[in-house]
């Protein structure tokens, strides 16, 4: 015949078990959070090291040089980013996010439409002028492979990554245009045409200008704005939108 537990003993035991289980879960969660925070901090430090190398070497930046700048071995760099493509994608996102934030700030500035158009164009050109090595690293795949600074090491295969960057910028701009400009029937498609067309124009004109410097940045901005202005000037603001 089994003995009954003294009153309250089994309940107390179960409570203690639950507390212990909760404590273990909390400890495991804390450890995972600390590990994740540490990994994110380390990843950020590695990207900052990569930025320093790109600013110095431009398209010639190599995994060897980045690992050396970070004070680690190349296998550790691969462990964090997978491969060159992973590192390139992380750097591209870092710089594209910053550029898009600047472009949105220019578009949101309280000013007349023509002034905002010129300010947005100037923001893009100022960004690539301020960091030409970063721009060339992100957008010039042939230079990246040909100028790799490490003997025997191939450069970053930028071509398959740079086009998605431009597409992302085109979609972002298309969203802004659709949100703010009344383009009438078929406005969504037209906004995408305009968004990708404007980004393509900025990229091609900016690339040419950065390489040859045939005119001042202000002159290029005014010329590009003149090219865009006809249809933009005629379109009204979208009802209920923030205005363009």
Order of helices and strands: HHHHHHHHEHHE
Please state the average pLDDT score. 82
What top-tier CATH class fits best?
Mainly Alpha
The level of helicity is over 70%
Strand order of the largest sheet: 1-2
Q: Kindly identify the CATH topology.
A: Tetracycline Repressor, domain 2
Number of helices: 10
Given the C-alpha coordinates, what overall shape results?
A: flat
Query: CATH H level: which superfamily?
Result: Tetracycline Repressor, domain 2
Biggest β-sheet strands, sense, barrel: 2 strands, antiparallel
Strand count: 2
Rg estimate, integer Å: 27 Å
- Poorly predicted runs are 142-152
How much of the sequence lies in strands comes to under 5%
Assign the structural class, choosing from mainly alpha, mainly beta, alpha/beta, alpha+beta, or little secondary structure: mainly alpha
Distance between the termini: 85 Å
Second rung of CATH, namely the architecture: Orthogonal Bundle
């Amino acid at each position: 015949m089994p003995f009954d537990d003294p009153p309250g003993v089994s309940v107390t035991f179960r409570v203690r078990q639950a507390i212990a289980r909760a404590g273990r879960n909390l400890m495991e969660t804390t450890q995972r959070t600390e590990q994740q925070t540490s990994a994110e901090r380390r990843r950020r430090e590695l990207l900052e090291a990569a930025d320093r190398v790109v600013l110095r070497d431009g398209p010639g930046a190599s995994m060897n040089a980045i690992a050396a700048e970070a004070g680690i071995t190349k296998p550790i760099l691969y462990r964090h980013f997978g491969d060159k493509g992973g590192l390139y994608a992380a750097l591209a996102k870092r710089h594209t996010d910053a550029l898009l934030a600047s472009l949105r700030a220019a578009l949101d500035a309280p000013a007349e439409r023509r002034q905002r158009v010129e300010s947005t164009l100037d923001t893009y050109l100022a960004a690539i002028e301020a960091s030409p090595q970063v721009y060339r690293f992100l957008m010039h795949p042939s230079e990246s492979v040909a100028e790799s600074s490490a003997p025997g090491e191939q450069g970053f295969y930028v071509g398959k990554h740079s086009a998605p960057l431009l597409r992302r910028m085109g979609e972002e701009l298309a969203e802004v245009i659709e949100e703010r400009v009344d383009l009438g029937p078929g406005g969504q498609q037209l906004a995408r045409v305009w968004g990708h067309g404007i980004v393509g124009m900025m990229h091609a004109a900016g690339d040419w200008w950065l390489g040859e410097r045939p005119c001042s940045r202000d002159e290029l901005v005014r010329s590009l704005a003149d090219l865009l202005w006809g249809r933009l000037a005629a379109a009204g603001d979208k009802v209920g939108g923030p205005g363009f």
